[in-house]
Design goal:
With 443 residues, this protein is mostly beta strands. The chain has a domain of 167 residues: Single-stranded right-handed beta-helix, Pectin lyase-like (Pectate Lyase C-like, 3 Solenoid). Helix content is 14%, strand content 48%. It has 7 helices and 28 strands. A 9-stranded parallel β-barrel has the order 11-13-16-18-20-21-19-17-14. It has a 3-stranded mixed sheet with strand order 6-7-10, with helices on one face. A two-stranded antiparallel sheet has the order 22-23. A hairpin with a 2-residue loop joins strand 22 and strand 23. The termini are far apart. The structure holds 2-acetamido-2-deoxy-beta-D-glucopyranose (9 copies). One 2-acetamido-2-deoxy-beta-D-glucopyranose binds next to strand 19 and strand 21.
C-alpha cells in the first residue's frame, strides 16, 4: 500500500536525520489567536509564517561557550527557518546574546541551555534594561519569533543566590529577556534557577506565553529572592496561559505601561500573587496599567492572591536595593475573575502604601496614582490565617484616588473561619465603605 511505503520512507528519512519532524505547532503556519483559550486576546495575534529550512546548533559539549554556534545558526536560519537545540545536548552560554535581529524564525529547544556562573562577566555584560536596574542574560526580539520545544533554560542561579546574600546591590541577570518582540510564541519550556525574575517582557506586543514550567530553589541557606514569573513593562496585547510557576515572588507582575493583557489558567505556588505594580515608584513618571483580565488562577502558599501595589506620594525605602515613591499614573479596567486560594496570607490586597510602614506618612502624602474600575469576582478558598481575623485589605490613601472598586462572589475564610476585610477610602460604587466591607464579609 502506498501510504505505508510513504510512512516507511518518512521514518527512514527521519531516522537518518535528513528531515526534521514537524512536531511543534509553529513549524507550519499557525494561528496564535486560536491557541488562546478560553479568553481571546484583546486584539488578534499575527499568524506565524511557515518555516522552510532547519539549522541545528553545534555544541562543544564540554562546558565551553556555545554562543558563537548559536548566533551563526540564527543568522543562517533567520527569515523563514527553524533553529534546533538538540535533545541530548547541553549548550553552554557564556556570552550576552543580542537576538533582537530575529524575523520569522523558530528556536526549538529540545535539549538544555545553561548559562555560565561567571558572575563578574555577567554583571559587566548582561543587557542593562534600566528599569529597576534589571539586566538580562540575553535579549530576544524582532518579529514573528517562536521559542519552544519543551527543553530547559537553566540560569545556574545558586551562585547568584549566595552572592546576593553578601551584597544586595549586585545585578542578578533575568533568565529570559523578551525585548522589542512583536509577534511571538514562547513555550512550552522549562525554566530553572533564574538568578532573579524569570521573564522580563519589555517594549513588546502580540506575544503568547504558554506551557511554561518554572521552578528553582536554593540548595543553601540563602533563598532565591525576587524570582518573579513574569514582569511586563511597556508592553501590550500579551497572553500568558497554561503554566505552572513554583517561585518566591510575584507569579505575574504588571509593571508600568502594561496594557491589554490576558493571564489565564495558571497554577502558582509559593509566590506573592498576581500583582499590578509596584507603580508610582519614580517621581516624574506616569505609570499606566489598563485593560487586564486575570482568569482562572490557582494560588497556593502565597503572600497574596490578587494584588495592586502602589508606592506612597513621597519617596521611601523598602530595602537596600528597592526604594521609591512619588510617581503618578493610573490603574484602570482590571478584572480578577476566578481564583482559588490555599494557604495565602491575603486573598485580595490593594495598597497605596507600598514600601512604607509609616501609615501617617502615607496619609500625609497620598498616592498620585488613581485606581478605577477594578473587579474582583469568584474568589474562593482558605487563607493562611496570618492576618486573622482579616483575609483581605483594600486600602486607598485618599477618597479621591480610588473609584469603582468592586468585589462580588468572594468566598474566602481563614483556617479559623474568620472572613473580615479591611477597607479604607473605597466608597464609590458601593456607596460607602461599610457597604463594601459588609458586602465582602457577607459573602
Ligand atoms: C562554576 O562553574 C564551573 C564549571 O562548570 C565549576 O567548575 C565551578 O566550580 C563553578 N563555580 C562556582 C562558584 O559554583
Ligand atoms: C524601550 O524603548 C524605549 C524607547 O525607544 C527605550 O528608551 C528603552 O531603552 C527600551 N527598552 C526598555 C527595556 O525600556
Ligand atoms: C539601582 O542600583 C543602585 C546602586 O547600584 C541603587 O542605589 C539604586 O537604589 C538601585 N535602584 C533601584 C530602583 O533598585
Ligand atoms: C507610559 O505611558 C505614559 C502615557 O503614554 C507615558 O507618559 C509614560 O512616559 C510611559 N512610561 C514609560 C515608562 O514608558
Ligand atoms: C483552569 O486552569 C486549570 C489549570 O491550572 C485547568 O486545568 C482548568 O481546566 C481551567 N479551568 C477553566 C474553567 O478554564
Ligand atoms: C510550593 O511552595 C512551597 C513554599 O514555598 C514549597 O515549600 C514547595 O516545595 C513548593 N512546591 C513545589 C511543588 O515546588
Ligand atoms: C475592559 O476589559 C475587558 C476584559 O476584562 C474588555 O472586554 C473591555 O473591552 C475593556 N474595556 C475597555 C473600555 O477597553
Ligand atoms: C504548599 O506548601 C506545602 C508545604 O511546603 C506543600 O506541602 C504543598 O505541596 C504546597 N502546595 C503546592 C501546590 O505545591
Ligand atoms: C511617620 O511619618 C510622620 C509624617 O511624615 C512623621 O512625622 C513621623 O516621624 C514618622 N514616624 C516614624 C516612626 O518614622
Amino acid at each position: 500500500m502506498k501510504a505505508s511505503i510513504l510512512t516507511q520512507a518518512l521514518g527512514l528519512l527521519l531516522s537518518l536525520g535528513l528531515i526534521v519532524e514537524a512536531k511543534a505547532s509553529s513549524a507550519k503556519k499557525y494561528s496564535r489567536t486560536e491557541a488562546c483559550k478560553p479568553h481571546q486576546p484583546f486584539h488578534p495575534l499575527p499568524i506565524s509564517q511557515a518555516r522552510t529550512k532547519t539549522c541545528h546548533v553545534a555544541s562543544h559539549g564540554n562546558g565551553a561557550d556555545d554562543s558563537k554556534n548559536i548566533l551563526s545558526a540564527l543568522h543562517k536560519c533567520n527569515n523563514g527557518g527553524k533553529v534546533v537545540f538538540d535533545e541530548d545536548k547541553t549548550y553552554t552560554v557564556g556570552t550576552a546574546l543580542d537576538m533582537t535581529f530575529l524575523k520569522h524564525v523558530d528556536l526549538e529547544v529540545l535539549g538544555t541551555i545553561k548559562f555560565t556562573n561567571d558572575t563578574d562577566y555577567w554583571q559587566t555584560n548582561a543587557f542593562k534594561q534600566i528599569y529597576q536596574n534589571a539586566t538580562t542574560f540575553f535579549q530576544l526580539g524582532g518579529e514573528d519569533v517562536n521559542l519552544y520545544g519543551g527543553g530547559t533554560l537553566d540560569g545556574n542561579g545558586q551562585v547568584w543566590y549566595d552572592l546576593y546574600a553578601e551584597d544586595a546591590l549586585i545585578l542578578r541577570p533575568i533568565l529570559v529577556g523578551v525585548i522589542g518582540l512583536h509577534g511571538g510564541t514562547i513555550g512550552p519550556l522549562k525554566l530553572r534557577y533564574s538568578p532573579q525574575w524569570y521573564h522580563f517582557v519589555a517594549n513588546s506586543s502580540n506575544v503568547l506565553f504558554e506551557g511554561i514550567d518554572i521552578s528553582g530553589y536554593s540548595s543553601s541557606k540563602n533563598t532565591a529572592k525576587n524570582t518573579d514569573g513574569w514582569d511586563l513593562y511597556r508592553s501590550s496585547n500579551i497572553v500568558i496561559q497554561d503554566s505552572i510557576i513554583n517561585n518566591g515572588d510575584d507569579c505575574v507582575s504588571f509593571k508600568p505601561n502594561s496594557t491589554e493583557i490576558i493571564v489565564q489558567n495558571l497554577h502558582c505556588n509559593g509566590s506573592h500573587g498576581i500583582s499590578v505594580g509596584s507603580l508610582g515608584q519614580y517621581p516624574g513618571e506616569v505609570d499606566i496599567v489598563e485593560n487586564l483580565l486575570i482568569y482562572n488562577i490557582s494560588m497556593f502558599n502565597a503572600s497574596d492572591g490578587a494584588r495592586i501595589k502602589v508606592w506612597p506620594g513621597v519617596s521611601s525605602a523598602l530595602s537596600t536595593d528597592l526604594q521609591g515613591g512619588g510617581g503618578s499614573g493610573s490603574v484602570k479596567n482590571v478584572t480578577y475573575d476566578t481564583m482559588t486560594i490555599d494557604n495565602v496570607d491575603y486573598a485580595i490586597e490593594v495598597t497605596q502604601c507600598y514600601g512604607q510602614k509609616n501609615l501617617t506618612l502615607c496619609n500625609q502624602y497620598p498616592s498620585k496614582l488613581t485606581i478605577a474600575d477594578v473587579l474582583f469576582t469568584n474568589i474562593k478558598g482558605t487563607t493562611s490565617g496570618k492576618y486573622d481575623p482579616d483575609v483581605g485589605t483594600i486600602v486607598c490613601s485618599s477618597e479621591t484616588v480610588c473609584s469603582n472598586i468592586e468585589a462580588t462572589n468572594i468566598d474566602v475564610s481563614s483556617p479559623d473561619g474568620d472572613d473580615e476585610f479591611v477597607c479604607t477610602n473605597v466608597d464609590e460604587v458601593m456607596e460607602d465603605q461599610a457597604a463594601v466591607c459588609s458586602m465582602l464579609k457577607s459573602m
